[in-house]
Amino acid sequence: MLKQLHFFLSTSSFATQMPGFRTRTTWKQFAAMIGYPILMVLIYVYMRYQMDLTSTAKDVIFLGLNNFVVVLCMIILPFILITNVRDIRKKLPLFNSGRQILGIILTVFLLFSIMGIGTTSISKLYSDAFSEKLK
Fold first, then answer.
1. What's 23's DSSP letter?
2. What burial letters (b/e) apply to 13-31, b meaning 16+ CB within 10 Å?
3. CA distance linking residue 4 with residue 25, whole number of Å
4. Based on the structure, what is the number of domains in the chain?
5. Span 33-46, mean pLDDT?
6. What pLDDT is attached to residue 30?
7. Mean pLDDT value across residues 29-49
8. In terms of domains, do 128 and 113 share one?
9. Are 66 and 11 members of one domain?
10. Dist CA 103 CA 129 (whole Å)
11. How many other C-beta atoms can be found within 10 angstroms of the C-beta atom of residue 66?
């Protein structure tokens, strides 16, 4: 079973583009095989956060959307940029040559701004009963 998994991870075109499997370094593959499931569980737990407090189906949708915005801005997009998935940093002008620090600062500012504006806008759509439960 382990040999079959190792064969799949070393030959699959999808797996060879995933961080942890691109270089085919054993310790990175091991860390990725442990890290990805943990990351998925953490994302699932956060996405389910406060769902039991919801009053209406509308609140469930808006809370899920709110949690997705936070996960996107705090986990998914930084992960993509940090691990340089599909050489994305080469395609972004602020990450080229000597402007990397400026690109990082602007990216962090942009992600926090998007998250703040998004979550604030979405939280205004909650029902009054759900808003009271959150306080």
1. S
2. eebeeebbbbeeeeeebee
3. 17
4. 2
5. 90
6. 86
7. 89
8. yes
9. no
10. 42
11. 21
Quick check: 71 pLDDT over 90? yes
Domain enclosing residue 127, as ranges = 48-135
User: How far is Cα 104 from Cα 108, in angstroms, rounded to an integer?
Assistant: 6
Mean pLDDT across 117-131: 91
| Residue given tokens 């990216």 in the structure block | 107
Q: What 3-state class would DSSP assign to 86?
A: helix
Q: Do 71 and 47 form a contact (C-beta atoms < 8 A)?
A: yes
Q: Strand, coil or helix: what is 57? A: helix
Structure tokens at 72: 């996107």
Q: For the beta carbon of residue 48, count every other beta carbon within 10 angstroms.
A: 12
Is residue 54 located within the same domain as residue 35? no
- pLDDT tens sequence across 1-35: 667 766 766 667 776 778 887 887 888 888 888 99
* Statement to judge: residues 68 and 111 lie in one domain: yes
Q: How far apart are CA 89 and CA 50, in angstroms?
A: 35
Same-domain check for residues 15 and 70: no
Residues 66 and 125 in one domain: yes
Q: Both tokens of residue 108?
A: 């962090």
